[in-house]
Amino acid sequence: MRHQRENDTIAAISTALGESGIGIIRISGTDAVDIASRVLDRGVRKAETHTIHYRHAVCKNEIIDEVLVSVMLAPRSYTGENTVEINCHGGVLAVERVLEEVLKAGASLAEPGEFSKRAFLNGRIDLSQAEAVMDVIQAKNRFALKAAVSQLSGTLSKKLKELRNQLLDETAWIEAALDDPEHYDLSGYPEELGKKTDAMIADLETLIRNAENGRVMKEGISTVILGRPNAGKSSLMNLLSGADRAIVTDIAGTTRDILTEHIRLAGLSLNLTDTAGIRESEDIVERIGVERARKAAEEADLLLLVIDGSSELQEADRLLLHEIEEKNAIVLLNKSDLDTQISLEELQKLSSHPVILFSAKDGTGLSEMETTMREMFYHGNINFNDQIYITNSRHREALEQALASVRLVKQSIKNGLPEDFFSIDLQDAYESLGIITGETVEDDVVNRIFEKFCTGK
Fold this sequence. Notes:
Blueprint: E1 10-13, E2 23-28, H1 32-38, E3 51-59, E4 62-72, E5 83-88, H2 92-104, E6 108-109, H3 114-121, H4 127-138, H5 142-152, H6 155-179, H7 189-219, E7 221-226, H8 233-241, E8 259-265, E9 268-274, H9 284-299, E10 302-308, H10 315-323, E11 329-334, H11 344-350, E12 355-357, H12 366-378, H13 393-414, H14 419-437, H15 443-451
Parallel strand pairs: 1-6, 7-9, 7-10, 10-11, 11-12
Antiparallel strand pairs: 1-2, 2-5, 3-4, 4-5, 8-9
Helix pairs in contact: 4-5, 5-7, 6-14, 7-13, 13-14
Function: Exhibits a very high intrinsic GTPase hydrolysis rate. Involved in the addition of a carboxymethylaminomethyl (cmnm) group at the wobble position (U34) of certain tRNAs, forming tRNA-cmnm(5)s(2)U34.
Binding site for (6S)-5-formyl-5,6,7,8-tetrahydrofolate: 26, 85, 124, 457
Binding site for GTP: 230-235, 249-255, 274-277
């Protein structure tokens, strides 16, 4: 796989534009040091690698900014190429002026993700690590950040390399035995391979099983608040979001449409949606709101069913308890700050879901709800020392393809098929895992992945 403009030296602003303490222009390529020297009052051509120098960025002897210049020579840089980073003051004009001079000096403007793409093409990182770079940048909670950093450090790559080596060893053994049967004995080999495929299947199943945790870490838990009118749904929305996002009144049916907010709660990310109160209504607008509420509930990862504890249990409450029975849900017995007319024990008998005594007004039960959520989605324990969390749907798809191929090997052994059948599926599994790391992926897929990166990364 060759870079379309691999001989170009590229440059871009690698920090967000705006008023800030610092703004960085990154230059990468064979001529990075020479190009940087052309825009500095004193060059850095004789600079040793991994050194920092005080300079002035100039244009026709006019000082644009005073800067610090980092020099990292190939191959000991992020891209594997000569890299220079000019650290300017963070004003928009200064950074853009310096970049303009860098481009005039011979650099080409970098495309989105081109620095990371070069790091991949130059063998500094594999494709899964490159994707982890953007996951680090886009992490919405501490679990997502830890998962991304773990993948960036190579934990997934290491595991995939182990699996691919096992698959390659078995394929090579079979091919050698078929080509030279006089020197290789395949007696008893199917049974031996069967044990090895069992271990491979277990490893792949574990990775795929952890993919659901990974998805929740990365994307957040799609959470919908349900309940009949005036149960306290909007008050719960405001409590969790920390702002008066939803209108709270004593008038039933105030909330007519769905309202979504992204929040962080005790290290978790929630894509939280408040919905219209579920009830029969003649009001066409309210009916549309109820329909949207039911649709949102159908697609949610988690439902928070709010029951008004200050009044007796209504038939509408019972219907909602029945409707969510097969869903992932937590039942909140709300308004515990008032005289409750419903007991916790009564609700627990009617629902198989966790039931929490709650008050959206003073926050009673919030800590218990957070703990319950974590246990529901992360099984109470997230261990980044020995667990690998798949946060990318592309990775999960490739793992599922590899698992299907290894299972075919197992089935062929069971059916007593010839050994050459084994090697075909072993090779398919090997290539499927290579798609994740980029070793067997097509150029257009690679390009599509890096196009999603921000410019300068």
